[in-house]
Amino acid sequence: MFTVLLPQAYAQEQQQAKLAELQAELKARQATLAANKANAGELQAALKQSELEIASTAKSLNDTSTQLADNREQQKKLEAEQEALRKAILQQQTMLANQLRSAFMAGNYDYAKMLFYQDEASTFERVLTYYQYLSKARSKEITTFRSNVEQLVQVNEALSEKARALNSLLADQKSQQAVLLARQADRSETLKKLNQKIESDAARVNELKQNEEALVRAIDEARRRAESAKSELAGLSGYKGKLLKPASGRVRKLFGTRRQGQVRWKGIIIEGAEGTPVRVVSHGRVLYSDWLRGFGLVTIVDHGQGYMSVYGHNQALLKQAGDTVGDGETIALVGQSGGQNYPNLYFEIRHKGKALNPSSWLDL
Predict the structure, then answer these.
(1) By three-state DSSP, how is residue 202 classified?
(2) How far apart are CA 21 and CA 256, in angstroms?
(3) Closest residue by Cα to residue 71 from 147, 140, 172
């Protein structure tokens, strides 16, 4: 005897098998890193790979969440349309019943007699006119009634299809969440090994310097691209103290304070919930959208006139280099990439490469 699986059960079984395969693959990767006693560089590469995998999964999960919200909104509209059609059909049924009852009640006229003998011709003319009017009105109502019934059938079918799509999206979401948790656990193990490699203060200062140099290079490259593009963007000079806060959460005003050794903070940290939106502070054009050592998944936006905003530690990037973005548009999701131990957004504002204090520019 064998068991026949329904399509949904089969899909769930396939998803569980894929998850088990992924978990085995991640476990093997951690075992290899431990056995080879990987150096800091190799662990950085492993961390980058892990965070890029998380970004891909998180982006898919975000897309699914958006589709779910859209599906539910469409269902609400269809349900409202369904209810309106049902009410209209009931009203039309009542109206047609009344018209038929009136026709039946008035059905005692002898038309043949009235035609041949011309008895009460004026009365006959009135009744005939009434019947013609009634017939036209009834015909119109019947046509509308049939149209509404057909439309209701279509709406019911659309609702059934939306319900099936919703169940499929919910299954996808559950699977993506499981994959995300597995990849986050893998990242946590890699980060632990990396932190053990750079335990000393000197090693940490050196690590921070290398990270900052990587960011400066990325910003300089972005500046060169912006200059070559001859952007017509107006810059941020008129927006000081008025710029949108890029993420929800507690702001740590770290700019200018000592980070470690001689390394100082060039931006601020906004402690937010993982997966929540990161919004661009003002309209502009994305110049950089990639993983960067120490800062994780980073987006750099050109605002014109040498002004740029930098968004780091993201979970996923939703815009690509070259994309135009409007005020407050979501460009990424809050995360903890770049070796962070908790979710946050790292934010900078630069003018011609020089770091400015974001707290003076944002409307906090």
Answers:
(1) helix
(2) 47
(3) 172
- How many Å apart are CA 68 and CA 169, to the nearest integer? 7
Residues of the chain with pLDDT under 50: 1-6, 108-121, 124
Give the span between the Cα atoms of 311 and 46, in whole angstroms: 22
Answer whether 190's CB lies under 8 Å from 46's CB. Answer: yes
SS (HEC) of 60-87:
HHHHHHHHHHHHHHHHHHHHHHHHHHHH
For residue 38, the one-letter residue type is A
Give DSSP secondary structure letters for 1-37: --PPPPHHHHHHHHHHHHHHHHHHHHHHHHHHHHHHT
Three-state secondary structure call for residue 233 = coil
pLDDT digits (tens, 9 = 90+) for 216-255: 888 888 888 877 777 788 899 889 999 999 999 999 999 9
Q: Residue 304: what are its φ and ψ, rounded to 5°? A: 95, 160
Q: What is the DSSP letter of 108?
A: T
pLDDT of residue 4: 41
Q: How many helices (H) and strands (E) does the chain have?
A: 5, 12
Q: What is the pTM of this model?
A: 0.67
